[in-house]
């Protein structure tokens, strides 16, 4: 027996309610709430996939941030191109996967890096390789889904979340930022972050954020969590609070220092140590809680139920195939 | 996790990240959506199917028991909304009405198979739509089939074997011995063994409780050996000691439903609901539904091409078929049009013929009429001539008469008169 089940037996267990047209009837305990435990066990066994993409010009600390988020070396830093390596002429897509485990939960984390984005003199259409990559993952999934004999679990390489790094200029969004987010916000969940925010004071930060938010609104860019996908009132109020705080102004670091007797992740400067996980110093902790501790599953669901479905519908419509099978349909009559 | 072992390194975490809340996040989402569970009860009338459902879910679901005079097997389904703490469950109970009541039971299983297939079909249709809403779809596929075996104590009836064989590839079958208080305990063990061996020798695949998860492996494998469950259902309560328990009271004693020494009801409830409900749903989706889908699509003419050939073969095959069908449609349309034109021509020709005939008739009649008229006119003319001649003669005669009267005597008159006569 599971522990939860034992608890039920010992205490006054909850009564089941049968909803009928006249009202509700109280029944004795049946045990259908054990399905939660059953489901939880099942998901622990199968583990999760999560694919996160980082986009932004080089040098903004993308890899460091991801490593800080997941507290492990999941992304290889490209800081300091060696003499032999050149800055890529076009945007490259590099994806690296690792398996991390915590509390019995296994996660296959794939970090998709986009070196070369925004680094050229002429950045026309630099979002195209990224858009292409995202659509390719949708296509892969669609192909698997459409097979006659399907795999028990279709491998999910679709990008669940795209962290877009905004340089901390303090002024406003650049045209490149607007163009990118405008084009991709309909195929992937975009979470804009202000990188290296330790260059701004708290006031400068607030002003910058407000300006950025206004610009995003003016350009009709719906970043994650999108207003239109709020499930219910509770969801909406939770998400409203988050949307008010976005974009998160973050600082990343993988070095630890001693502060007030504790070991903390931080950046050491001549004028003090910036504590990454201190909510007074930067908004890293909020980003982490939002991204990982509360909305991780939701990011996957929005990708699957909305972005993927949009791609699928468009793809099937464009090729004029697999139109909805209605009762008058010809295929039915062939059977 | 299971199949991505190659090339993916595991890295250690340097601190608490927090994604161990993933199962909770997922479970919360599911709880918000609510769950569906659909049970099908197959068994002859009078085996206590409705009572067992009432007992399992602690309520009185339906109305009166059904009669034994149904002409065929129909399936009646009822949906109920149950809520326990924060879990909302849409429970659907489907009953086979009239199963086993007919004299000729050859087709009894057919309506059941059709019903199960219809639920798969509905899901498949939704899955194949362009604009689909799978995540909020009310799943009506049958997750568990309780097969009620009559407590004869001997063996399975041939109807049971045939039906279960037809159903085992479409649904999770859990066989149970109904009204098992009719069998003595010693006979029950033998009966169970007989049933199990008959199922095995006939190749019937019943649902096996899963034993791959260590936390439930032990209990599940024990339960597997107790199949088929011998159950007793009752919604009436009897006072035993100082508690009210569900039981059936006989003059010689009371059968307590929830007493594990009396019957396997508790085991059934445990296995069906409290331990394996999720697995039953998963098996239905990943095994039975996939099998149905594969067969259906292959039937419709789709094929998976080999891995290195064209992408999206399903859609292309479909396109080809659609073009083929459109072509046929067009051909048929052409044919129909041609036939129509042909018919019109024919009718036109007929009408022309008729018209011609009419004209001819008319001409003939006219001519006839004219001839007659001429004849009549001729006759009239000749008659007129005769009349004229007669008148002339009359005038001449009168003249002569007058002359004779003036000149002669009456004798010549008489002689003339005689001559005239």
SSE topology:
The complex is a heterodimer of chains A (335) and B (421).
Chain A: H1 3-10, E1 16-20, E2 23-27, H2 34-46, E3 48-55, H3 62-69, E4 94-102, E5 105-113, H4 128-146, E6 161-166, H5 175-184, E7 190-194, H6 202-218, H7 233-245, E8 248-249, E9 256-259, E10 262-269, E11 272-275, H8 284-294, H9 296-318, H10 330-334
Parallel strand pairs in A: 3-5, 3-6, 6-7, 7-8
Antiparallel strand pairs in A: 1-2, 4-5, 9-10, 10-11
Chain B: E1 9-10, H1 22-33, E2 35-42, H2 49-56, E3 74-84, E4 87-97, H3 108-128, E5 144-149, H4 158-167, E6 173-177, H5 185-201, H6 214-226, E7 229-230, E8 237-240, E9 243-250, E10 253-256, H7 265-275, H8 277-299, H9 313-407, H10 410-420
Parallel strand pairs in B: 2-4, 2-5, 5-6, 6-7
Antiparallel strand pairs in B: 3-4, 8-9, 9-10
Helix pairs in contact in B: 3-4, 7-8
Radius of gyration of chain A: 24 Å
Q: Number of DSSP helices of chain B?
A: 10
Write down how many β-strands of chain B occur, each being a DSSP E stretch of 2 or more residues.
10
Shape of chain B: elongated
Overview of the molecule:
The complex is a heterodimer of chains A (335) and B (421). Chain A has 335 residues and is α/β, with parallel strands linked by helices. Residues 1-12 and 321-335 of chain A have low confidence and may be disordered. Chain A is built from ten helices and eleven strands. Chain B is an alpha/beta fold and 421 residues long. Chain B folds into two domains: 30-300, Rossmann fold; 313-392. In chain B, 52% of the residues lie in helices and 14% in strands. In chain B, helix 3 (108-128) runs parallel beside helix 4 (158-167).
Summarize the structure.
Chain A: One of its GO terms (molecular function) is GTP binding. With 335 residues, chain A is an alpha/beta fold.
What are the key terms here?
heterodimer, A: 335 residues, alpha/beta, Rossmann fold, six-stranded mixed beta sheet, three-stranded antiparallel beta sheet, globular, disordered N terminus, disordered C terminus, B: 421 residues, 2 domains, 10 helices, Septin (chain B), GTP binding (chain B), G_SEPTIN_dom (chain B), GTP-binding (chain B)
